[in-house]
Amino acid sequence: MPSDPAPRLAQKHVRHRMAGYSGHAVAANIIEGEKMNIIEKQLEEKELVISVIGAGGIGSLLVPALARALCAGELVKEIGPVLLQVFDGDIVEETNLQHQNFNSSDVGSKKVDALVASLRHCQTPDLRIVGVPVDVRTATPIVHSDITIVAVDSMPVRNLVHRYSELWLDLRCQGDGFVAFDFRVDSKVVSQSTPLEAPSASCQLPGAVESGNIQFGHHLAAAHGAQWLVQCLRIISGQTMASMPNPQSANISFGTLGRFELDNINLKPKPSNEAINHPSQLIIDLVSSGNHDALPIKETLAHHAYAKDWQSLWNLADSMGREVSLLFDAEDKVWVDIGTAGQVKLSPPEGAKIPFKLWIHTHPRDAYWSSTDLDSILMFSRILEQALVLGHDHCKRSIRMPTTVRDNLEDGSELSLWTDEPTVKYESLEVVVNASR
Fold first, then answer.
1. With contact defined as beta carbons under 8 Å apart, do 11 and 26 qualify?
2. Cα(45)–Cα(306) distance, rounded to whole angstroms?
3. Within 13 Å and on the Cβ side, how many CA atoms surround 378?
4. Pairing relationship of beta strands 255-259 and 324-328 according to DSSP bridges
């Protein structure tokens, strides 16, 4: 059976809204049917951020539907303040009026400005509606959102959302049909359906606007999106009867064409991390918010390791107050783990190719081989070639040799094969990462 999304939704919300409470405990309470009063228990007032990317055929219908549904009733009050923000850099044109939710007085205005202005009556102390008149091109707005709905026909933007959002919905339409993917669909199916080279296309068929043959698949997509989000929020609030609509493909003429098989998200092997040097402000914001497991942080750590920038790698780990681990496999793929303030373990991931070329991890200040480090190296000695521990401006390295060495990590065990090299400054360290990326 596919995984129940309730724990994932609850944990996502709680991480941003509560301190000192376990997300797993909250999820358990939801599954048990016990309703938590998040308002009473929250220690820091923060908004749950919902981002809609695109204010065209789908988005211009979806945002008003959501705003009107959320501004009344108890749902938003139960989960606390909500920020509903919509991103789009386009201007309303005459050709938009036949199939998008604008009128003639909006022509020449930013789409998001026109939408937000029409929804002033929906603004409440618990619901803020904000228009952001830019096109999304980076991961920054996505990682700062709790829930992301992409309703713009751009494969690069869709790929960003799939990669950097934990809770996402991808709405697509053309003619009288629509397709809805979400975070529960097998990542391979989503990837195959989102080729970067695919051109953008209108939700209307060619010539439909000029001829007046307007199709209404975008209404189906917007309705699916509104239903999906309201049910997400019901799950967050603890309503055990809530159920999100399944990812599907449908059209008005023939009904439901098919439903996508749901992925068992709890059993997926952890993928390797790409090396991307994300903007420093994004990393600072993520660290400050306590979102230490965010993918951009892991990708930036991987970048520093590939670049052999040990100082930047240690500095980022230190800024989080966490020890971090990076493990390189035989194909030079890297897996990044974020530990606690005093420990990070060597955790070989499923799907990696042995032998592992290098294990890098950080210590809070001084580089040394702790008992936990030695236990980890001993446990994986036969499938690990090098280990490196980083301190605030220096490091220690150990290499597995084919025979016992004089200066080793421990006599009388497999650790006698591992060199005990002196502590060196970063600038004196020889190259230890030879990743072909």
1. yes
2. 39
3. 16
4. unpaired
**Which CATH number fits the domain 6-259, given the four candidates 3.40.50.2300, 3.40.50.720, 3.40.190.10, 1.10.3710.10?**
3.40.50.720
Q: Are strands 248-251 and 394-399 parallel, antiparallel or unpaired?
A: unpaired
State yes or no: pLDDT of 66 exceeds 90: yes
Question: How far is residue 386 from each of residues 54, 80, 361, 403, 429, measured CA to CA in Å?
Answer: 48, 49, 12, 15, 13
Instruction: Report angle CA 255, 257, 260 to the nearest 5 degrees.
Output: 130
Q: What is the pLDDT of residues 386-408, one digit of tens each?
A: 999 999 999 999 999 999 999 99
Provide the 3-class DSSP secondary structure of residue 2: coil
Instruction: Let me know: does 330 contact 307? Beta carbons within 8 Å.
Output: no
Domain with CATH 3.40.50.720 in the chain: 6-259
Side-chain half-sphere CA neighbours of 160 within 13 A: 22
Please give the mean pLDDT across all residues of the chain. Answer: 86
Residue 399 burial by CB count (10 A; 0-12/13-18/19+): exposed, middle or buried? Answer: middle
Q: In Å, how far from its chain's centre is CA 74? A: 28
Number of neighbouring beta carbons within 10 Å of residue 425 = 12
| Cβ–Cβ under 8 Å, residues 47 and 81 | yes
| pTM for this predicted structure | 0.76
Whether 411 and 378 have beta carbons less than 8 Å apart is answered as no
CA 97 centroid distance within chain:
35
367's CB contacts (< 8 A; 6+ apart) are 389, 390, 391, 394, 395, 396, 423
- The residue ranges of DSSP E strands in 271-406, in sequence order, are 324-328, 334-338, 358-362, 386-390, 394-399
Residues 190, 198: Cα–Cα separation, whole Å? 14
What is the spatial distance between Cα 98 and Cα 101, in angstroms, rounded to a whole number? Answer: 8
pLDDT tens, position by position, 300-311: 999 999 999 999
Bridge partners of residue 362, in order along the sequence: 390
| Integer Cα distance of 411 and 420 in angstroms | 11
Kindly tell me the burial class for residue 67, based on how many C-beta atoms sit within 10 Å of its own C-beta (0-12, 13-18, 19 or more).
buried
Q: Tell me: cis bond preceding 133? Omega within 30 of 0 counts.
A: no
Q: In sequence order, what are the beta bridge partners of 384?
A: 356
| φ/ψ (deg, to 5) at 132 | -120, 105
Distances (CA, A) of 12 to 42, 44, 313: 14, 15, 27
